[in-house]
Structure formats: C-alpha cells, structure tokens
TrEMBL record, chains A, B, C:
One of its GO terms (cellular component) is beta-galactosidase complex. Keywords: Glycosidase, Hydrolase. InterPro entries: Beta_galactosidase_Trimer (IPR013738), Class_I_gatase-like (IPR029062), GH (IPR017853), Glyco_hydro_42 (IPR003476), Glyco_hydro_42_N (IPR013529), Glyco_hydro_b (IPR013780). It catalyses: Hydrolysis of terminal non-reducing beta-D-galactose residues in beta-D-galactosides. Gene3D superfamilies: 3.40.50.880, Glycosidases (3.20.20.80), Golgi alpha-mannosidase II (2.60.40.1180). Its EC number is 3.2.1.23. Residues 254-464 form the Beta-galactosidase trimerisation domain. This is beta-galactosidase. Belongs to the glycosyl hydrolase 42 family.
C-alpha cells in the first residue's frame, strides 16, 4: 500500500495524466460545452470544442492567470486519481488477505490539503492519520484540531494514529524537539480525539540516509534515553486504557461544530483572489482555538459531515457553497439551528462561479446582511495598514466585508472605527439575525484567534447559547470525553497553559502524566505538557 | 489589435527570435565587429565572427554575468519586434477601415517599462494608456506622474485612458479597494493630465474565470451598488466637461520638466551595477513628488521630448547619455537653461560604455563636479548602515557620489557629516554651478522624496527660480490646467492630504466631487479624495 | 589554466558526469554493496545492484530527501573531477615551461567551500587565493581568518594573493566601496598572514561588459584618483618589505588552532539536519573572532593539517570525525593536548553514518559528556524563541545539546536558565574534563562571537592556559608575526576598532599606514583602517 499518497506526487502533468484528466472531465461534465461553462471559458477565448483540447494547468508564467475552474477540477482529479490507485492496491490485497482491514495513512493537519481526505474516508476500512506537531504555542491546539478533523472524517468511528514523532522531525528548516512530557501527552490527545492506536515513525533511528535526524522510539543515543523510557511508559499507559475498556469508545459529540472544506481550501489557493493572505484554512483553526479560549471544545466537521446535528455550527470562510449546501444551511437555521458565518463564505458555487447580487450570495437571506465589495487590508505598500478597530475593542486584519445593508430586525453587534474618508467607519462588522426558528451571526472580517475569543461571549449570547455548553468551561484546559457503549465515560484533561493548573476530576483517575491528583481526589494539579484521564460510569 | 503588448510576452528566446535578433543587430550595427565593439566583447573572450553566433541572453545561472550591452540591445529589439507586430496588425486594419484612428493600450506607470512607450508613441494614431493605481499613500501622486508621462509621450496631444479600475484589481497579493470618491477622482486626474476619454476594465464583472475578482463598472453585487452609481456619476461629469469645451484642449506646459528615459531604466536593471537598490525609475517619481511638495507641478518628459523647452529641467539618474544628448544638455545650459542633475546620470553612452575620467562623464564641465567613485549604502551586512546625514539636515540613502573636486566658482550647498574614517565626512553633496548663460545643480546622492522636498527651496534658489512658478504653490493641492484653443482654461485641483483643504477657486466651478464651493464662491473646501474643476477664459 | 574552478561550474549532472561519478564510486568503494552500505541504501529501498545504476543527485522536488551520503560523495567527486582537470592543464603546461611554478586561484573565504581547497593544496606548486572582502564590521576579521586558512592550506609556505579588489566589487546586490586606507591595509593583512605577492582584479577598469563596475588599479576616473595613488603607494610598500627581507618568511605558529573542515561543511549543507541555521562554517569564524576579542590570534588549520602541534585546538562543529580522526584527537589529549569541542562535532563518521550511543559519539570519553538529543532553537513559529540564557551571563542561539550526563570529575562551568518545563533548565552547557594528561572543554550550544568571547577566559582557565599566550593580548589590535629563516621577525599590527588605538611597537618601524609612531618610538597610534609593521631580530 502506498505511503502518504499525494505528499510528494500530488500533480502529474504528463500526457498520460492529460488523457486521464480529459476522461475525468468527460465523466464529470458529459459534454465539452459543460466544461466550457464550468470553467467560464468564454472569458479570454478559452472555449474548447473537444475533450482532447483539455491540457493540465501547466505553468504559464504567472499563476494569477490560470483558469481557476480548471485548476480546482485538476485538484479534484488528482485526489481522485490517487484514490483510484489506492483502491487498485487495496483490491489486490483484499483478494489475498480478505480478513485484514485495509487503510492508508492520511495527512490530516490544519495546514495540509493535498488530498480530499474526507472523500478518501469512504474507501478505507478504517481511517488512519499521520500527524506531525506544529512547533511553538499552537502545538497542543493544532494537534487537537487535526485529530478532531480526523475524527470527523472517520465519522466518529475509532481510527489510528499511524505516524507521529517521539520528538523532532528532520524536514523543517529548524527541527524543534519535544519538551519533557509532550511525547506522551501528544499521543494521548489523539487517543482522546478517537485514536485506538498510536504509531511512530521511526522505530529505531537510522544511522544513515535522508531521515537519520528524525526522532524515533529507539533514538541514536540508544535505549538509555528519556525518549525510549517515555515510549515504554506510553506503551504501559495505552495498555492501561485498553484494560479499562477504552477501545471502541467514541468521542462525545460536541455542542459546536466548526466546518472544514477541502474544496474551499483548494479554490482559495488560486492567486487572483481579493487577497492571498486569506485562504479557507486560515479561519477554522482560529475558531477552534478561540472556542477553546472560552472553554468550549468544538468538533471539526467536514462540510459533507453531520454539522447540522450540532447546536451551533460555524462556517469559517467556507468559500464554496453549492446550491444544495446553501439550502441545507437554510433548512438548518429555518428549523432552529444556530449558525456563525464569516467573511469569504458562500462566495462561489461548486464550480467557483460567484453568487451574484451581493455577498454571501446564496445565503444573504439567512444572514441578514448584504456585502457590496471586499476591503482587503495589508501593509505591503507605504501608507497601507493591516488593522482596523472594531467598536467591541477587537481589531480586524486582512479582510473586511463592506456590508452596505442589514435586514430589518437584525442587530449590529459591532462596527468599524476608522478614518472618516476610508468608507469603513461605522460599517457593520458583526451582525446577528433571526431566520425561521433559528439564529445567525455574520462576522464580516478576520479577527484572529484573540479577536474571536473576545467577541465570542457576545456572539454566543446573540445566538442564545451559553458559552460553556461543552468542553471544560475553562480556557486553561482542553477537555475531551470518549464514551463507551456501556456508558463508561473517559474524560481527558490537558493543560493548555505554561503554568500549573488545578482542575476538578470527574471520576476515577486512570492515568496522569506531569500531573498529580491532590486533596481528596476531587482535583488534580497539572503541569504544562501534562494531562489527566479519568473514568466514570454515566448514571443515566 | 493586441492587448498590452509585452506585458506577458516581452521576451522570446526561441530560435526564430534568435534569427530576428541577429537581423536587428545587423541593421543597427552593420558589421559583427561593430557589435563586438558595442558589447565590449573583448572582455571575457566574447568576440563573435559572424552574426549567426549571436544568441539571445538566455539564462546562464547568474544574471550578474550576462553581457549588459547585449541585454540592453535585446530589450530594444524586443520592443521593436512587438512594435513591428503592432504595425502589421494596424496596417491590415487600416486597409479595411481607413477612417478609423488606430491605437493600442500602453502600460505607462512609474514602475513599468516593458516597452519603450515613447518610441511607440510614433506609430499610433493617438496614444492610449492602461493605468492601475498604486495602493497606499502614493496613489494620487503616482497616477499624476504616470498620466503626465503619458501626456509627454503624446506630445501634449489629447490621449485616452483605455483601462483603469473602478476599485480593486485581482493580480496583486493584496488587492486594496478604492475608497469613496477615488474612482471618480482618479479618472479626473487622467483627464486633467490630458485624457479625452476614460475607459474601464471590465464592464460587467465576470462570475468565473481568472479575473472574476477584478472590479468593474457593473460589479458582482449588481447595479444596486455604490460602484455602479459612481460610474453613472462619472459619465455625467465627463459629459459636462465635454459640454464645457474640454475635448481637444491641451495640458498647459509646466515650468519644470522631470526627464524619464526607458533605455536608462533598462540599462540600470542589469544586476552587476554599483547597487541594485538604484535603478533609473526610482528617482523621477521622487522628484515629481518632491516638487509637488513645494507646490510645483512638473511635466514628466521623455528624454527624446522637448525638455529643453522648459525653464528648469531635472535629469534624475538618467544613466545613459549619448554624445548627442550630452551636447544637447550642454547647449541648453550654455544658452541660459537651468538644470538639476543627480547621481547616476550620464554614466554611460547609449551603448552602455562608461564615460571615462570621472563622473558624470560627458557633462562634468556643465555640472562643475568630478566624482571619483560611488559609495553605495546599505544595511545588508552587520555594521553597514543605509544613511548618511547631510549638513542641510537631510539624509542620504542607497547611493553617494564621492565628489573629489568642484569647479572654481561653484557653490557647495551641502556636504556629508559622517564617521571621520569613512572618507565621506565633508565631501560635497549638493553643488551649484554656473555654465554659460545658465546654471546647474548637482545632487550627488539619493535623498528620497522628503530629502528632496527639504532641499528644493535652496536648490531652486541657487538656480535663480522661485519655488512656485507653476502648480498650486501649495503642497496640499495638485493643480493642473488644460488650455483650450480659444483661451479657455480648465483648472483641476485635487486634495493631496488626508484632511480637508481650503483652496482659492480661479474661475467658474464646473464640477466638484467630495468638495464644496464656500463663501462667495472664491474658495472651495475639498475633502480627501476630492477635487474641484473650474473654467475661466484667459483675459490676455 | 582555468580561473576559479568550481565557482560557476561546480556540479555537472550530464550523462558524461554520471559515468565519471560511477567510476569515482567504483574507485572509492570497490563494490556496489560498499556503496549501498556507505549511502545507507537499505533505507527507502535505494539499494543498487550495479554501478551503472548510480545517477547524479539531480533535483527531485525537495532537497530534504536527497540521499545525504550520495550528495556528500558527489561533492567530493566534483572537487576531484575539477582537480583532475586542473592537473591535466598543469601537466600540459609543465611540458612546455618546465621551470615555471604552476598554480591556480583558489577561493578561500569564511563562506565558500565549492572545492576542497585543502585537498587541492597538494597539486599546486604554490598556493594562491582570490579574496574579496566581506562588507561591514567583519571586514578585517574575516579577511584575517580566510588568509590564515589559506596559510594553513599552504602549510605555512608562502603563498600568493592572486586577486582582491582595490574597492567595490560588482556582483553583490549592494557593492560597498573600501574606505580610505582599507585597500592598502587589506593587502597587508594577507601579507601578514603569509602572502608573498598581492594581485588585483582588474588592472584597468573596463568601460563595457559585465564587470565594468568592478574596481581596479586604474579606475574609470583615471590615474588622477585616490585609488590609483594608493595602488602606487602599496607598490612602494611591498618593495620596502621585500627589501627588508620579508619574502620567504613564514607566519609564526600560534598557540591556538581553530580547525576547519571542507567535508564537514559539505555534509552540514544537507537540508534534513537538526537545523539549517547551523552549518559547520558558522562556528570557526566566530571562534577566531572571539579569540581575537580576548587578544589571541589563532591559526586556522584544515582538519588534515597539524592541529595537534598546537597547545590548544578548537573543533568548532566539526560534524564529520572518522574513526582515525577520533583516535587522533584522543591521542592528542591523552598525551597532554588541550581541546575545545563544540556542539555538532563528531556526529558522524566520514560516510555520514552517525556515531551511536549519545553525542559526541566517537569522543564522548574525551569530552566527559553524553548528549541524548539536540534542541534546536528558532523563532520561525509563534511562541518559539531563539535564545536561552546561560548561568555565565551569555545566551545560546540556534542549537543546544541536551547533555544528560557528565563524567565523574568533570566540572560544569555553565548551565542553562530556562522555563522550568522546557527540559533545558539546569542542563549543563559548558563542561570541562580531564582525560589522560590533557584537558578538554565541551561547549554544548551556539554562543556566537560575543558569548564565546565572554566565556573564553573561564574556558581557557579550565584548560590551564592564560588567555594571551599568542596574538596581541589586546582585543583592539590584530597582531601577526612572520619569521624569517635568519631570525628576523616582522610584526604586523592592525587596528580592529573604529577609534584610534595606541600600541607598543616591538622593533624598528618599517611601514605605517593611517598610523604614526609617537613618543620615543616605543608606541604607535593607529587610526581605524591603519596598521604598523615593525622588524626585529630575535635575540635567541
């Protein structure tokens, strides 16, 4: 079975691939005119009269001027072509070992979308993922985000962490090691988020070759090392969890879903957009983290997933919204759902044809706003500035929607404070609306994690939800629960800070690392990089 | 007719182009030895014995080491080859529609020189230009500069603004929108500078394809939008100006000419120069803006144009000066002309052969200075600094000429204050001289817009001219006048600041935008991005 | 004879080169299995079964994943192939002019290792070097470092400075000129370090062609110029030194050797390393300068050179240490030698196979430390920081060794002060050890020039050596001595500061530049960029 499909061979510009892409287009669109229509080929005289005229989006000197519809479809084709390759390998193996479950290692993280992994989730017997940590302060949160998205792709079925690192990788310009405790803690975050297995690359660190500086279970320094001792400890910890009945349990559904969409990410990678500083994936991680900052652990859910089963759903720069998805959102809110939608959501349909008449085109009625144009912010020319203040004390960066009208009955929660001549002063920034039985909030700019966290209490209040419906209720702790079929609940608590935190312990302590249960067993003190796992049985 | 010739297809390195380049060289130089001589081919054994040995300047691993003479000629050839292509298209059309004037859209701006547009000016029936605004604080000034250069290329015949944008473009990394008022104001700046027509790309914004995020007259949001309403207002404004007799009028000649030279720009793009931080075009815009900052609106004039018809002419880093141009300058000053010449002017002749004996080689007598070597400044190595103070309170950056002698009778207006061991302390920085009936000032360093503005009063005084001979006399306002054949004068006043300015109104107010005429009609209050147009009839 | 071999043609990826590389591998390794073993070809299924399967390390999309063993060998091959080319040219010339010594211009500097010049030293009749100054504050020190390394390559036989510049070069983005005095001073630094001849590129500055802005002996401004007058002065100065008997004298051996290794530099250029911020050559120059900062002039010695003839030897990030070199170091210290070894030394053997069991693998016993893993520092992700304090008041950057144990009897000279959760707080940073009759100090992090200078007094004390055994004993002055066969000593003193310094004069003043001998002739006052040369006869 191949390894990390698409990581180093995502695109194929050969003539073979060209013919396969032509065939893919024929299957998707049926006629060459449908392709012309999808790609807006009338513009710039790009009309084709036969499928044989379709070439891959080869370099033409300036990425700005590639056809965005074709480029989006070429990414879809490339994911599909490699998926077909996986399926061929899988089917060959399945004949030989019909009883073995088959999978391949995805690469789900907050900053990777080479394949549409949500689509691949359908063709593996169980989902597995490779995850390598993000250095610095985002380490824990990004890992939880990526693991939650993996869990979303797995539809809350248990999955495997196929690869992660015991410490440093070797492929970044600077390869930070893991701090004491982080190796075990990191593995446990994936477990908390639904992993039933934890694997590492590599077992014994190679002495030579391209990956000799990649950490391993048995490091270059040998078995007499903290890394190896921690690996042994982790093995015992995982045994203990298995003994306690964790395997097969599922991550408790959160109250809030943050939606991620591979195709929106692909479409926003085109360079001829309002600003290259905003691509779909810049926003969902900020929302996930800002929610943690107000004590809420959200689920990250693929756009095809069951986000409409949640109390609150966030659509963060979900650039592509098809007619069907727009209607699904409308139905959800109509029926009582609560939705937060941000700038750069619902700009185009699935062919990247822009919804006309003002943004967010297909769901203006739901949101109660109309945006006439975008005001990207930056500081790449003298006299430009990448910040505009909001009346709620936060600051917008990178993107502002120029909201020119607001529906009757909608509430403007915040406006911009700017230079009186800029055209932004007093423009609505955050608008709450009611639609059908539900409610919506539109956030018309990029506020970043801090700005979102500061705005969230008021936003959640406008939606009529308290700000601690799920998660720890405490910004200092990441809390996730796995539920067994028998009602057993495994609660995982991770310290998100650089200091010690004291947390209530809800059940029988099963595991601690860099933590100690204190007092009468009702609270635990967790150091940075530490965690506690407890077990309880639901009384219901 | 082709669109924006050279924008995406400036250079052709194919074998066909190679043969055409060989032919071009044969026509320019006659013999291969003349080519060898022009390109300094003795150096590095580059001598050729036949035209067939000439290859295009293809990539050789390091641009530093391309032959600069060949590279300059290849740029000339490329402009000529595309011009010949335009002429072929034009001639074919002219047979069919002999009564239609024919043109093509140039791309004149302060930072584009893919073609020698001044040379192309001869082959169009009327000049037309595409101009896209520079974001940030240079927006208005750069536009006025580019429009003035277009007017210079048109030899003050009316021209067309073929393309500009109603708001954001889509091809920058960050695509800033226009502020309220800017769309109409921008169009009017081009009109003030000689445009008789204003066009936009694009009419109706495309829903799909590579330019769907480029603004338009009818935006994605539809006709119910500020952009569309402003487009309609602009149409009415242009009608009003036409009714008032503006069409066909010409921009009043300024007192000061700032010279721009496409070939000097091309030559200074070679990387093996004293510093890559200085190329010809970095300086003319600074001078144009600094002159505005002391209330003087200059004309930007191509080096082949009539700069010797002005009271004062500025040669800002005009790197190439042929023998003939050197003599023309000498004659101009000899006969009473007043000239400001900066560092990096007159370094080489038209073949990029350096004038020997000290800089500025061919016009040392006129300027009364002798420069022994250059002292580029930078901060790209620890312990380097990109600033040296001048005795007049300004600061030099990027380039200092080491002036080692000054003619008898010349006045040193400013010197450098530096580390006593650097060899720059006390060296003359700005030197005024008298030559024949005229006067000259040499500015031996890069002062930037602010440093030039601060130095200009003294410089103009040394030349014996007041500092407000043309323009508004007020740094806060850009003032341009178009003169009709019947003596009608159309004065355009634009606010250059971020606050309101009050200006005297000289004639009958024809148009205002973001402005209001107050009091008894003698003054107007203009907000940022606003302007006033008045009409008067010359009593003379 | 070719010019600057390898400067622009280091690598050849053609099929011809492929065959030559295959042959080179056959000669080095004998069997393809030995190649497989050397390159760790089992990893990633890279095993070959025939020499014809060896291809050059052509671009594969990501340099991280090239085989590091192959890449290292390809650099060795490329140096050898060009050396063989030189030898062929040399042999042809030697037949014609058997009495002429033959050489070629190396490019030895602190930041160039395209060829293994130490290896080339064996095939020239005398060493010659091209050196172009580093702009900014490192100018003098880097030049002295490079010249000392050249002297080390020449094994202290006199050598030639074949090329340097009178002032600016033309191939940097910003081409700084030399300050007054620097041209003569620079030439004299090379002379002090062993050059018996000083050459310049170029004689008369070319008017045209790619190097027309490169300074020369006769500049574009002509003979009436400071540059030309200084060239004449230098000629007279060199004559005076020749008359005084300098030619053929040798640079006095210093007490301290700083080791440089071309192959360690090549190996650390691979991108999949702990951090790309640390490559071998970043460290030796820092040590050379830090030693100057405590008044010690060190010799820079190639790893194959006689570093074990010195009192103290510094191995600064000498990444590759073969079994033989490890043993050589062990024997040296065992026998009473004093060694300073830094982080990133002795990581791998000559095949880039990592020494197992903890770092520095093959010399842990000598150093008395064991490093379990590396902790690279950086600031390229939010929340990362590229600095950790040491208990001795200095600061580590870029790389920290996690020292987990220290030998009995070893002294921890400094530890880290860090976040209590980082795993670095309290870890030993600098450790002194005794081994056999000798002593060692291990510096487990990158301290930079300033940190090293601040730590050196204590380090030298731990080694049992005073801090001014050689050199000037004065951080403000670079002092070098050349010794004639007859006991004549030529002392060169150069001002390292930006102010005047007063120095004792030890002998008869032969030359001064930007300096004056004052008082009774026992002291001299040297301005920045100045120097004094004296002659004395050794009484011994």
């Amino acid at each position: 079975m191949g390894n990390e499909y698409g990581c180093h061979n995502r695109f194929d510009y050969s003539d073979d691939a060209m013919r396969a892409f032509q065939e893919w287009c024929r299957e998707r669109y049926g006629t060459i005119d449908a392709v012309n229509d999808a790609w807006g080929a009338n513009f710039w005289s790009q009309r084709m009269t036969d499928f044989s005229q379709i070439i891959p989006p080869r370099f033409i000197g300036d990425g700005n001027f590639m056809n965005p519809g074709k480029l989006l479809d070429f990414k879809r084709f490339s994911s599909d072509a490699l998926k077909a390759f996986y399926e061929a390998e899988r089917d060959a193996l399945a004949e030989i070992t019909p009883d073995m479950p088959l999978t391949t290692n995805f690469m789900v993280s907050a900053s990777n979308s080479v394949m549409n992994y949500d689509d691949w989730g359908d063709v593996v017997d169980f989902v597995s993922n490779d995850h390598y940590f993000t250095p610095g302060e985002a380490h824990l949160d990004e890992m939880a985000y990526a693991a939650s998205l993996t869990d979303g792709i797995a539809r809350k079925n248990p999955w495997w962490l196929m690869e992660n690192s015991t410490s440093a990788v070797n492929w970044r310009p600077i390869n930070y090691r893991k701090e004491p405790g982080q190796m075990i803690r990191d593995a446990m975050v994936h477990v908390a988020m639904g992993a039933d297995a934890v694997g590492f690359f590599q077992w014994r660190q190679s002495r030579a070759g391209a990956e000799k500086f990649h950490s391993s279970m048995v490091p270059l320094a040998g078995e007499d090392s903290q890394v190896f001792r921690d690996v042994c400890t982790l093995g015992r910890d995982l045994d203990a969890l298995a003994d306690a009945g964790l395997l097969g349990s599922r991550v408790e559904r959160a109250k809030v879903a943050v939606v991620f969409d591979y195709e929106s990410q692909w479409a926003t990678e085109h360079t001829a957009t309002p600003t290259q500083q905003v691509r779909h994936w810049t926003e969902p991680l900020d929302w996930f983290r800002a929610l943690l900052d107000v004590g809420v652990t959200a689920d990250v859910v693929p756009v095809r997933g069951e986000w409409d089963a949640y109390d609150v759903v966030v659509l963060p720069s979900v650039y592509l919204l098809s007619e069907a998805d727009s209607q699904r959102l409308r139905d959800y809110v109509q029926g009582g759902g609560k939705v937060i939608v941000t700038y750069a959501t619902g700009i185009s349909d699935e062919r990247d044809h822009i919804w006309l008449g003002g943004f967010p085109g297909s769901i203006r009625d739901v949101m109660g706003v109309r945006v006439e144009e975008f005001a990207p912010l930056g500081d790449d020319f003298p006299g430009t500035k990448n910040e505009v203040s909001l009346s709620n004390g936060t600051t917008a960066h990178d993107w502002i929607d120029v909201i020119t009208s607001v529906a009757d009955g909608a509430d403007v929660i915040a406006t911009y404070d700017d230079d009186p001549w800029s055209g932004l002063d007093g423009v609505p920034a955050i608008v709450a609306n009611r639609f059908g039985e539900g409610r919506s909030v539109y956030v018309g700019c990029r506020l970043g994690r801090d700005g979102l966290a500061a705005s969230l209490p008021e936003v959640l209040d406008a939606l009529g939800v308290a700000d601690s419906d799920s998660g720890s209720g405490d910004a200092k702790v990441l809390r996730v629960v796995r539920e067994g079929a028998d009602g057993t609940r495994f609660a995982f608590l991770f310290n998100r800070t650089r200091g010690k935190v004291t947390v209530p312990v809800d059940g029988e302590p099963l595991l601690t690392s860099m933590a100690s249960v204190v007092g009468d067993g009702d609270t635990a003190e967790i150091t940075p990089n530490g965690f506690v796992v407890t077990r309880s049985v639901c009384a219901d």
